[in-house]
Design brief:
Layout: E1 2-8, E2 17-23, E3 30-39, H1 42-48, E4 65-72, E5 84-87, E6 90-92, H2 98-101, E7 113-114, E8 133-137, E9 142-143, H3 150-153, H4 159-169, E10 177-181, H5 185-196, E11 200-205, H6 211-217, E12 221-224, H7 228-231, E13 238-243, H8 251-255, E14 258-266, H9 278-282, E15 287-290, H10 296-309, E16 315-318, H11 323-331, E17 338-342
Parallel strand pairs: 10-11, 10-13, 11-12, 13-14, 14-15, 16-17
Antiparallel strand pairs: 1-2, 3-4, 3-8, 3-17, 4-5, 5-9, 6-7
Helix pairs in contact: 4-5, 4-10
Bound molecules: NADP nicotinamide-adenine-dinucleotide phosphate (NAP) and zinc ion (2 copies).
């Protein structure tokens, strides 16, 4: 066992504050990772404030982790001490069900063991990346290239894979018109990947001040969704909309923008059930779909793609004690475009 310094939420109403807990010593297949950078995902806010229900406290959020291996178990074969590694949203899964056997363990039929706000197989609570170190089975750890600025790599472990995976699944590329709805952590990675895959990319945003950034990130067009005149020409226009919005919004207004057979893909997870009308869906034979993170194998594929194409997240580095302010700023759509905690500030 070793003590991990961390920041935790004690209850859904408390700000995050310093806390310590014990991590296990590495077992035969485990690697111990000294965390260097930890990204801040809107899912951290949803869970720390128990917006999805079922949150467990105390909670140490954080599932966009990059760090160096400091110890390995006797049977570890993928990693050695000193390797640069990443941990995303899952630290285990049942490894037996159909989805686990299809390299789709993010859809494990028994539910993956998530990096925090979840349980290990032995029933002990999981604690995430806002902490000094983490111990994870090597099967759920990915390799990180030394080539890229690593603070920009951390957000790839969730925001990156969550947008890469649906774009790949729906084979989005040249000839497709894609809208990315919401330019935050997920949205800005969605823009980078969709542009890299050769699609025409439009950002749909409530924030007029994000236009220059959207175009610099690779978008071809930018539309302020609150301006009726701006959005009118885009009725029946898009093949896909990647909806990354964290709060409830008017789904029919966006469905109308889809062309024949167009698909609205949800990756954002607002905490309340969504309402839409069948008439808007059946016009143009539209579809609605959703996608959750990505598998470990696909996460490695995405990281390798990013290393090859020089893709990282645009980040604002913060110290650990800035986290509550960072949450407040994210809720005001004031993030460019991912906060990443310098975990050295915790030590
Ligand atoms: P974020 O950085 O806070 O960005 C969300 C963006 O949504 C905002 O920047 C804003 O963009 C837009 N937005 C916010 N409130 C809005 C509203 N009321 N109406 C319209 N647009 C609004 O959040 P994130 O980290 O990217 O996460 C986004 C969502 O994805 C969260 O719900 C998170 O839990 C979820 N998520 C899902 C998965 C998955 O596996 N599916 C994985 C990770 C995260 P503009 O300023 O451009 O309007
Ligand atoms: Zn996340
Ligand atoms: Zn499974």
């Amino acid at each position: 066992m070793s003590t991990a310094k961390a920041y935790a939420a004690a209850t859904k109403d408390s700000p995050l504050a310093p806390w310590s807990f014990e991590r296990r010593a590495p077992k035969a297949h485990d690697v111990q990772i000294e965390i260097l950078w930890s990204g801040v995902c809107h899912s951290d806010i949803h869970q720390a404030r128990d917006e999805w229900g079922g949150s467990m406290f105390p909670m140490v959020p954080g599932h966009e982790i990059v760090g160096r291996v400091t110890a390995i178990g006797d049977h570890v074969s993928k990693f050695k001490v000193g390797d640069l590694t990443g941990v995303g949203c899952m630290i285990d899964s049942c490894r037996e069900c159909r989805n686990c056997n299809r390299d789709l363990e993010q859809y494990c039929e028994k539910g993956p063991n998530y990096t925090y706000n979840s349980l290990e197989k032995d029933g002990s609570p999981t604690y995430g990346g806002y902490s000094y170190h983490i111990v994870v089975d090597e099967k759920y750890v990915v390799s990180v290239s030394e080539k890229l600025p690593i603070e920009g790599v951390a957000p790839l472990l969730c925001a990156g894979i969550t947008t890469y995976s649906p774009l790949k699944h729906w084979k989005i590329g040249p000839g497709h018109k894609v809208a990315v709805l919401g330019l935050g952590g997920l949205g800005h990675m969605g823009v980078k990947f969709a542009a890299a895959f050769g699609a025409e990319v439009t950002v749909l945003s409530t924030s007029p001040n994000k236009e220059a950034d959207a175009l610099a990130l690779g978008a071809h067009k930018f539309v302020v969704t609150t301006d009726v005149e701006q959005i009118k020409p885009y009725n029946n226009y898009f093949d896909f909309i990647l909806d990354t919005v964290s709060a409830p919004h008017s789904y029919d207004n966006y469905l109308r923008l889809l062309d024949n057979n167009g698909t609205l893909i949800f990756v954002g997870i607002p905490p309340v059930p969504m309402e839409m009308t069948c008439f808007t869906l059946l016009g143009n034979r539209r579809s609605v779909a959703a996608s959750g993170i990505g598998s470990i194998a696909e996460t490695q594929e995405m990281l390798d793609f990013c290393a090859e194409h020089n893709i990282v997240s645009d980040v604002e580095v913060i110290n650990m004690d800035y986290i509550n302010t960072a949450y407040d700023r994210m809720l005001k759509n004031d993030v460019k475009y991912r906060f990443v905690i310098d975990i050295a500030s915790l030590k």
